[in-house]
Amino acid sequence: MDSITVGFIGFGLIGGSIARALKELNPKNTLLAYHYSKKKPSIGLIGAKEDRILDIITEDLTDFSVCDIIFLCAPVLSNISYLSQLKSIIKSDCIITDVGSVKGNIHKAALELNLDRNFIGGHPMAGSEKTGYESSSSRLLENAYYILSPTDLTPPDRLEFLRSLVVSMSAIPVIINAGEHDDITAAISHVPHIIAAALVNMVKDSDDPEEKMKTLAAGGFKDITRIASSSPVMWQNICLTNTVSIKQFLKLYITSLQDVSDALSSQDASYLFEFFETAGDYRDSLPVKVTGLINRSYEIYLDVIDEAGAIATVATLLATNLISIKNIGIIHNREFEQGVLRIEFYEEGACNKASLLLKKYRYTVYER
């Protein structure tokens, strides 16, 4: 692929990871990032410049007039506000895309600004509860789903350019419209984050002065609420921009909780059994099979290079050291997860032994 000029507005975990991937793809790519504050640039921006990932840090958006593509990587509401500022600056064939997990509002704004020939919604389904350029990696997008939502007026050649760019970063492009995207993410991401935060706040508000609940909380509670540690600003923005879809699925969830409450009151044993059985069956049918959230699982995640034999190499290394694997597989939806490859073990000792062994062989290992 020929060298391109790429602009970034917002430069944290996702923006930094995309920038790293693009620079590895072609060191001649010119990357610039916008510094919106008059204060000293952030540690992340300075670090990216020192790492030679960024070529230019600018306080003037007019410098983005040379960009072939611009990634909006700020919080959702901020991304929308930048569209109007960019309209009179960009060249006619520039692609503007975002990385937010809500598409409807920004698509509407692009339409109202007559930018629907330039704008293509984007949502890389990768990341972690950790934030900032310091946590970024060129492999963060590897084998991860990357949703693209074109407008009705998106030129086919621009969509194909962005699709090809996503593929070149080793991600998996999925093309769907904005409305369908927002319903999907509300159901599988946004409502679960609200639930996780609500559970944490319920325990916090119900605990006694000695904090016995906090002290004893482990295993299932930590597993199901881990995502509650994510950025409050980001989730505030998501809730304010995907309100309709979130309310739709939140209402369904509240109804299901009321049904469980009613079953408890009536001691409806058959309903409760079916409730847990159907949930367990569906959970086990997900692409990477895992144990239930309340059952303790022994698992590690690690980064692997996307090349033939990479998984086999890891499996062989563990097998030759007499470490049994329960499950192994690539994770394609890695929002708020780290590590491309997930390995599950039958017991804790094997998990710990595998972690030490893989670290010894220079693998980057993430433990839950």
Q: Nutshell version of this structure?
A:
Helices cover 46% and strands 15% of the residues. By secondary structure, the chain is of the alpha/beta class.
Q: What would you say this structure looks like, in words?
A:
The chain is α/β, with parallel strands linked by helices. The chain has helices at 13-25, 43-50, 76-87, 104-112, 156-168, 178-206, 212-216, 220-225, 232-241, 243-266, 269-284, 310-320, 348-360, and strands at 5-9, 30-34, 56-58, 69-72, 95-98, 119-124, 145-150, 172-175, 298-302, 327-330, 341-345, 365-367. The longest helix has 29 residues, at 178-206. The chain is globular and about 65 Å long. It starts with a strand and ends with a strand. The relative contact order is 0.10.
Layout of strands and helices, then pairs:
Elements: E1 5-9, H1 13-25, E2 30-34, H2 43-50, E3 56-58, E4 69-72, H3 76-87, E5 95-98, H4 104-112, E6 119-124, E7 145-150, H5 156-168, E8 172-175, H6 178-206, H7 212-216, H8 220-225, H9 232-241, H10 243-266, H11 269-284, E9 298-302, H12 310-320, E10 327-330, E11 341-345, H13 348-360, E12 365-367
Keywords: Amino-acid biosynthesis, Aromatic amino acid biosynthesis, NAD, Oxidoreductase, Tyrosine biosynthesis
Family: Belongs to the prephenate/arogenate dehydrogenase family.
Catalytic activity: prephenate + NAD(+) = 3-(4-hydroxyphenyl)pyruvate + CO2 + NADH
